[in-house]
Known about the structure:
It contains 6 helices and 9 strands. By secondary structure, the protein is an alpha+beta fold. It has one domain: GHMP Kinase, N-terminal domain (Ribosomal Protein S5, domain 2, 2-Layer Sandwich), CATH 3.30.230.70. The chain has a 5-stranded mixed beta sheet. The chain has a 4-stranded antiparallel beta sheet with strand order 7-6-8-9, with helices on both faces. The longest helix has 26 residues, at 211-236. The relative contact order is 0.18. InterPro entries: ExoRNase_PH_dom1, ExoRNase_PH_dom2, ExoRNase_PH_dom2_sf, PNPase/RNase_PH_dom_sf, Ribosomal_Su5_D2-typ_SF, RNase_PH, RNase_PH_bac-type, RNase_PH_CS. It comes from Pseudooceanicola atlanticus.
Amino acid sequence: MRPSGRDLSEMRPVSIETDFTKHAEGSCLIKVGDTHVICTATIEDRVPPFIKGSGLGWVTAEYGMLPRSTTSRMRREASAGKQGGRTVEIQRLIGRSLRAGVDRVAMGERQISIDCDVIQADGGTRCASITGGWVALRLAVNKLMKAGDIVSDPLVDPVAAVSCGIYAGQPVLDLDYPEDSEAGVDGNFIMTGSKQLIEVQMSAEGATYSRDQMNQLMDLAEKGVGELVEIQKAACA
């Protein structure tokens, strides 16, 4: 039934290659099917002005898509002079999702910036960015702990994200682009490793959905996030 031939509850193949770039304190290339995202983490000895002097750390994110990450070339946002609304919304989502798994007191008054660059898109780029972004963050924090710059681990729980939706009348896990573009209902689910919800984005694209269908999608998302967290842990081991 699915264009890819996957079962309803089957994820695309997922791989995470760590230390993908030379200079970043943490980096990885995450592949979720044909969606590929480079995630890097940069440690900075500064925080935004609104928390300066509070002793709290900060995690922020930036997100972008390369011009030929999609089937036709998109214009670089830098050449347009401003970021698009979708880009701003996604990078704010990444930042607040990752902060939900951080003890900002233990992190100390420093900032870790997560950059997520989509080099190939086939649906679920924001979810892949969050999942890979946590791995980059984990690796950067490991370096802080190894250097003795922080005493206790500020990452209290892994954070991962997956998309689910209603495609051809059936609830499915991890939508690729052909499914995403045709789905009657589309949702993004961000959770911690202990299955605590951080954010749920669900919308009726072509049809309304019932409470029972929403619960089915939640069950699929829990399964998917559980698989992603195990892959995250294995990559960082």
